[in-house]
Amino acid sequence: MPEHTPEFSGSVIVLVGSFNPAIFQPEWFARNGLLPQGEVDSAELQVIHPHLCQFETESFTFQITTDRFTAATKPNTIAGPLQDLILGTFYVLEHTPVQAMGMNRVLHFAMESEEAWHRLGDKLAPKEPWNDILKGRPGMRNLDILTQRESPKGSSLTVKVQPSLLIQPGVYFEINDHYAASGSAGLKSMMEILRNQWETSQKKGEEIARHILEWAAA
Question: Is the full-model pTM beyond 0.85?
Answer without folding.
Answer: yes
